[in-house]
Amino acid sequence: MITIWKHPKESFERFMSRFEGAVQRSRVVRVLRERRYRKKDPTNRIRRNAALKRSDYRSQREKMRFY
Predict the structure, then answer these.
(1) Domain extents for the chain?
(2) What span, in angstroms and rounded, lies between the C-alpha atoms of 18 and 2?
(3) Count of CB atoms within 10 A of residue 28's CB?
(4) pTM of the model
(5) DSSP per residue, the chain
(6) In the 8-state DSSP scheme, what is residue 65?
(7) How far apart are CA 51 and CA 31, in angstroms?
(8) Contact 18/4 with Cβ under 8 angstroms?
(9) CA 45: distance to chain centroid?
């Protein structure tokens, strides 16, 4: 949580500048954007299919290595 108080003689623009800097330093906006478009973790089926594709690509690359 970000808490900032306005100083008595501080202008509103300076206060907003300080607030925006504090928000950026706390990385709140970055975390919220990451959560907004969060991808689901891959299931076991998806992981297994990806591993099979990788092994197939490796074997094809190994076959083409000496041509």
Answers:
(1) 12-66
(2) 11
(3) 13
(4) 0.49
(5) -------TT--HHHHHHHHHHHHHHHTHHHHHHHHHTPPPPPPHHHHHHHHHHHHHHHHHHHHGGG-
(6) G
(7) 30
(8) yes
(9) 24
The number of residues in the chain equals: 67
Q: pLDDT digit string (tens) for 21-66?
A: 999 999 988 888 888 888 888 999 999 999 999 999 999 999 888 7
Distance (Å, whole) CA 22 – CA 3? 9
* Single-letter code of the amino acid located at 37: Y
Q: Rounded to whole angstroms, how far apart are CA atoms 24 and 19?
A: 9
Tokens for 2? 């970000």
